[in-house]
Write a structure and sequence with these properties.
This protein is mainly alpha-helical. It has a single domain, classed as TIM Barrel (Alpha-Beta Barrel), CATH 3.20.20.70. It contains 7 helices and 3 strands, in the order E-H-E-H-E-H-H-H-H-H. It has a 3-stranded parallel sheet with strand order 1-2-3. Helix 2 runs parallel beside helix 4 and helix 2 crosses helix 5. The radius of gyration is 16 Å and the shape is globular. It starts with 7 loop residues before the first strand and ends in a 5-residue tail after the last helix.
């Protein structure tokens, strides 16, 4: 942390305790960006992160990334929690399916939102129709754009 040219940290531990300690020790020196796919965003922002990573900005930028960031960075953790609750079933579904990668889910949810993603490149494959239907259901439940 003594190297002056390092100004940001992308965290990918998925360990809230470690993230919280990192923020406590270094948030006055670094911009800390969390990479928690199951978005613990209300907690992450309370700990002191500056932003987060998710595949959802490619799907519906104003819903996921911008809305959650603006709400949480303004300290409205109750609204951030409400938005988190709308998406938790989808995140549990996406992160709990070992045979399909986040990239495949990200591309498929973007397609469902009406954003063309092109063809798949091996080793990635398009999720089964039943999985696509479930993703669509979760997106509607969360209030996301669906075409």
């Amino acid at each position: 942390m003594e190297i002056e040219k390092i100004i940001a940290w992308k965290e990918d531990w998925m360990d809230f305790g470690g993230l919280r300690e990192l923020c406590y020790r270094f948030r006055d020196r670094l911009m800390i960006n969390a990479n928690t796919y199951k978005i613990m965003i209300p907690l992450d922002y309370q700990a002191g992160i500056a932003g987060y990573n998710s595949f959802l900005p490619n799907v519906d930028p104003t819903f996921a990334a911008l809305q959650m960031h603006n709400i949480a960075s303004n300290g409205d953790f109750q609204r951030a929690q409400e938005l988190f609750v709308k998406t938790i079933d989808m995140y549990n579904y996406v992160t709990g399916r070992g045979s399909t990668s986040i990239i495949e889910f990200g591309k498929e949810t973007a397609r469902i939102a009406g954003r063309p993603m092109g063809s798949e490149r091996l080793p990635h494959k398009r999720p089964w129709p039943s999985v696509r239907a479930k993703l669509r259901e979760f997106m509607l439940q969360a209030g996301m754009t669906v075409k």
